[in-house]
Write a structure and sequence with these properties.
It is built from 23 helices and ten strands. It is an alpha/beta fold. The protein starts with a helix and ends with a helix. The protein has three domains: about 130 residues, Orthogonal Bundle (Fumarate Reductase Iron-sulfur Protein, Chain B, domain 2); about 250 residues, 3-Layer(aba) Sandwich (Rossmann fold), CATH 3.40.50; about 55 residues, no CATH class. The strands form two sheets. It has a six-stranded parallel beta sheet with strand order 1-10-7-4-2-3, with helices on both faces. A four-stranded mixed beta sheet has the order 8-5-6-9. It is elongated, with a radius of gyration of 26 Å.
Length: about 475
């Protein structure tokens, strides 16, 4: 077994029995669950909205090259520049090239998971570039030296007491600081950084093909600040972020807000169509969009799993997943955790190392039920499992067990060869360890249903 798998199992075991973690997550997710119920009230027919969103995203996925070229053409017509990056290394090199060309040393970043995917902050640190997260949750985990716990809520695993203690240690703030005190401290610290930053980096919630627009959704205003003051704005976005038309935003923005945070609409929604134009008083002088593949085309090549590229990163499937709610986001050891991460990570980071994520699911279907773009996530996990077996990423012991099981199930005589007592002894000796220390082995009856049936039928024949 790989080191990645062993670490996952070890971390999952530890986190599942961390009562403090359970308490924090239950509290934070309970607030989310209540908010989403209220958010859904704005819809008269939410299923119809989801079906329309799913149709549009699937339309883009099926004809992705066309929409990408449309976006590039329309964005560059207003002075923007598009950079195509095959993988993380190429994206990092191209971004660094822009910074070096402009002598940039200070970067402010609005919340973006794709820069976590390419590990941009770590790369900048190694190259002597200051990179500061400006989303409060992202800033908290950056100060803590951690990765985001959740796609939407990076510091969901931390209580207000945890954050207060962290800031007391790092900045000497009062140990009993309230969330408002923490926010005020961060606001003051970041304000100066916004003014002096050389470059602002953001992600994109949506890329609009027909106008070449970049759309950002946020609740703190930090995204607008990150792209307004610096002279250079760099957008890093996955190639799947496209929607066909600007008018489609009236469908996608409310869905993202409802399922992401339970709001009717997020507080700040920005549409950026390029760098500052002649006659405009603000905005960046230069704007770049780095379109990242990073094995998304590998996922696109699989007819079934390509549906996962429709994801709008609302995080709803994480909040609904009983596995995620028990083992937590960091346990996955990936940028994208929960059900959506378990589907896409094996293709984006390697099936050999990450196939176990597709098996870390109860297949209850809760993730599919809550998805605002109707991705059949629990079914895609089954397709992943099937593909991992086809590609030979199985243990020899597993192959022996399932081959034996199949043979026994196909031959009734093999099942009836030994008594229930003998079968139970075999189970205790050879299966108990595999079954796990916290599950009770099922007790096999002395006689099978088949044997009982034959006996009763025989008794009836005798009576005749």
């Amino acid at each position: 077994m790989s080191e990645i798998y062993n670490k996952f199992m070890k971390d999952a075991e530890k986190k599942a029995f961390d009562l403090a973690h359970r308490k924090t997550i239950r509290f934070n997710m309970a607030r989310y669950d209540t908010a989403v119920v209220n958010g859904k009230m704005q819809y008269s027919n939410i299923e119809l909205a989801k079906e329309r969103a799913a149709h549009l995203k699937n339309k883009v996925i099926i004809d992705l090259p066309k929409y990408l070229l449309d976006f590039e053409s329309n964005f560059q017509s207003r002075g923007g520049k598009v950079i195509w990056a095959v993988d993380a290394d190429e994206a990092l090199k191209e971004i660094t090239k822009i910074l070096k060309k402009n002598g940039a040393k200070h970067v402010v970043k609005s919340k973006t998971m794709v820069t976590e995917e390419i590990e941009l902050n770590d790369y900048f640190e190694k190259n002597g570039i200051e990179s500061l997260e400006t989303d409060l949750g992202e800033y908290i985990v950056q100060v803590a030296g951690q990765k985001p716990y959740h796609i939407v809520t990076p510091a969901m695993h931390m209580s207000k007491e945890d954050v207060s203690e962290l800031f007391n240690k790092k900045f000497g703030t009062p140990p009993d600081s309230s969330p408002a005190d923490i926010a005020a401290h961060v606001r003051k610290l970041l304000r100066e950084k916004f003014y002096t930053a050389d470059v602002g980096i953001s992600g994109a919630n949506f890329l609009v093909a027909d106008t070449g627009a970049v759309c950002l959704t946020e609740n703190e205003g930090n995204g607008m600040m990150s792209i307004s003051f610096p002279k250079i704005h760099i957008v890093v976005a996955g190639i799947e972020k496209l929607i066909p038309r600007l008018t489609d935003l009236d469908l996608f923005w409310p869905l993202l807000a409802t399922y992401g945070t339970g709001q009717n609409i997020s507080v700040y929604n920005s549409i950026i169509t390029g760098p500052r134009q002649e006659g405009e008083t603000d905005g960046p002088e230069e704007m770049y969009v780095v379109l990242l593949d990073n094995n998304r085309t590998e996922l696109l090549a699989h007819k079934n799993q390509r549906r996962a590229l429709a994801c709008i990163r609302c995080g709803a499937c994480l909040n609904a997943c009983p596995v995620y709610r028990n083992i937590g986001g960091h346990t996955y050891g990936t940028t994208y955790s929960g059900p959506i991460g378990s589907v896409i990570t094996p293709w984006m980071s390697g099936m050999k190392d990450y196939k176990h994520l597709s098996f870390a699911s109860s297949l209850c279907g809760a993730c599919t039920e809550v998805c605002p773009v109707k991705i059949n996530l629990h079914e895609l996990l089954l397709y992943n499992r099937n593909d991992s077996v086809k590609e030979g990423y199985t243990r020899r012991l597993d192959r022996i067990i399932f081959k034996s099981y199949k043979s026994a199930m196909l031959h009734r005589n093999m099942l009836n060869m030994t008594s229930g007592k003998t079968k139970n002894k075999f189970m205790k000796r050879f299966v108990a360890k595999l079954w796990g220390p916290r599950r009770t082995l099922p007790v096999i009856a002395e006689k099978s249903f088949n044997q009982l049936w034959e006996e009763r039928r025989g008794d009836k024949e005798k009576k005749k």
